[in-house]
Amino acid sequence: MKFPGQRKSKHYFPVMNRDPLLAQLTIQPAPVNTWICGIDQTLVDIEAQVDEQLLADYSLPKGNSTVIDDTTAQRLYQQLQQQQLITGEFAGGTIGNTVHNYSVLADDRSVLFGVMSKQIEVGSYAYRYLCHTSSKVDLDYLQPVNGPIGRCFTLISAEGERTFAISKGSMDKLTPDHISKPLVQGGAALVLTAYLMRARKEDGIADAAMQAIAYAKEADVPVVLTLGTRFLIEEDPKFWQNFIREHVTVLAMNEDEGEALTGFDDPLQASEKALEWCDMVLTTAGATGLYTAGYAEESEKRETAHLLLPGSIPEFNRYEFSRPKRKQDCDNPIKVFAHISPYMGGPEKIRNTNGAGDGALAALLHDLAANNYHKSRVPGSIKHKRGGLCYSSFSQICKYANRVAYEVLAQNSPRLSRGLPEREDSLEEAYWER
Ligand SMILES: Nc1ncnc2c1ncn2[C@@H]1O[C@H](COP(=O)(O)OP(=O)(O)OP(=O)(O)O)[C@@H](O)[C@H]1O
Ligand SMILES: O=c1[nH]cnc2c1ncn2[C@@H]1O[C@H](CO)[C@@H](O)[C@H]1O
């Protein structure tokens, strides 16, 4: 497990700093394995640059993720190929991206539940998916299926907005018996997407997700949900509010999904509203940056050294140096909020923002898993005296999530091809000290 984010050396995990001679006198704790689990619809992204007319021709609402039938998929693929509009093919899926990015950042294990074609030819989509997934993502538990994995036509409009058309193949065929109870219950978190719930009942993946949630809740493993697209939430906000209230510890959304869920277009108000149903919220807001929101114990709150920010909740970031805690673990819970503007104002040129939100969530998951790791290695640490959901403060998590989102934007792919630099070699190293 690597340390989440850049820090001054005093903040590094103390667990490696053992004197080689003194170490002989102490009993070394057994190595701790830390991992997170995710469930996804196995998808390859086929990215293409398109105009408005193409979206209209295929009745694809801009910004949405629409499931299309095989004939339409065939027609769309042919048109994209003939007009030479395809710019890249990547492994995708919102949770696939998230666990891959987690494994790259943490340099540690994640487990992905989903399907994989039984027969794989070199060059096929299934082959590409496997090739483009970090070797630290454990794919041993994928359920073998007879058909192809899914394809996600990722259609980028001139201004960078992405619209998804999903040709689902066998991506929804995951069944509950392929969810490993010990893996889910031993994990630091279970991460899911709202997309799973739109699968047809007879296809299995929604039931598999519910089974995994039941295992996680039984063992008190945090359930992390990312909302996917506002269109899905708009269809039935009440359903999602109840779903979050019943099952979710940490919610990740963008400002549009936040509005669909809560009715507030202001990301801060949406985050506050969502705290009625869950313990922590990550709300990304494109060029406005991102917010974290959650609970801290009144007696442990820590005041920020940063400028107090104006907003719908005045000076909302006052206690952003506090560490997130589940509401139920606080005697006197207070709500805490933090915000950060895009790292270095964002990359100079953004081709599209696909996957930036997934990157931000991977950073949060890394911080959460690092807390588990640290707790097992240094149980006596003052950090763990009164519990806590994450290793770092709301403010540090904002910085880290933001930094990772920048990297996804700069790399032009929803999946990181490398971790963050060990040292920021630009003057922005100061960013981590601010
Ligand atoms: N135009 C931009 N300029 C600078 N930074 C940006 C821009 N768009 C996104 N970002 C960064 O990326 C983060 C996530 O972006 P965004 O809110 O677009 O995620 P998203 O809509 O969830 O994306 P996706 O669903 O494609 O993963 C933002 O919080 C911000 O840090
Ligand atoms: O229905 C879906 N299920 C799972 N993932 C999806 C779906 N639609 C789009 N994406 C995925 O979202 C990622 C960006 O966040 C893309 O990589 C795309 O593959």
Structure at a glance:
With 434 residues, this protein is of the alpha/beta class. Helix content is 30%, strand content 19%.
What this model shows, in words?
There is one protein chain. The protein is of the alpha/beta class and 434 residues long. 30% of the residues lie in helices and 19% in strands. The protein has twelve helices and 16 strands. The chain has helices at residues 52-57, 70-82, 94-106, 125-131, 181-186, 205-218, 230-235, 237-247, 255-262, 267-274, 356-377, 394-411; strands at residues 35-39, 43-49, 65-67, 86-91, 109-113, 115-117, 137-138, 143-145, 150-156, 162-167, 190-193, 223-226, 250-254, 280-284, 290-297, 333-340. Strand 14 (280-284) and strand 15 form a beta hairpin. The longest helix is centred in the C-terminal third of the chain and has 22 residues, at 356-377. Inosine is lined by residues 40-41, 43, 45, 65, 92-94, 97, 152, 164, 166, 193, 195, 354-355, 358, 414.
Strand content: 15-25%
The Rg value, from CA coordinates, equals 21 Å
Helix content: 25-40%
Q: Largest sheet at a glance?
A: 9 strands, mixed
CATH topology of the domain at 222-434: UDP-N-acetylmuramoyl-L-alanine:D-glutamate ligase
Tally the helices: 12
| CATH architecture grouping of the domain at 222-434 | 3-Layer(aba) Sandwich
Listing every helix as H and every strand as E from the N terminus to the C terminus, the arrangement reads EEHEHEHEEHEEEEHEHEHHEHHEEEHH
Structural class: alpha/beta
Q: Strand arrangement, largest sheet? A: 7-5-1-11-12-13-14-15-16
- End-to-end C-alpha gap: 25 Å
Number of strands: 16
Runs in which pLDDT lies below 50 for 5 or more consecutive residues are none
Mean pLDDT: 91
Tell me, what is the CATH class of the domain at 222-434? Alpha Beta
The global form is: globular
**Small molecules in complex:** adenosine-5'-triphosphate, inosine
Protein name: Guanosine-inosine kinase
Cofactor: Mg(2+)
InterPro entries: Carb_kinase_PfkB-like, IngK, PfkB_dom, Ribokinase-like
EC number: 2.7.1.73
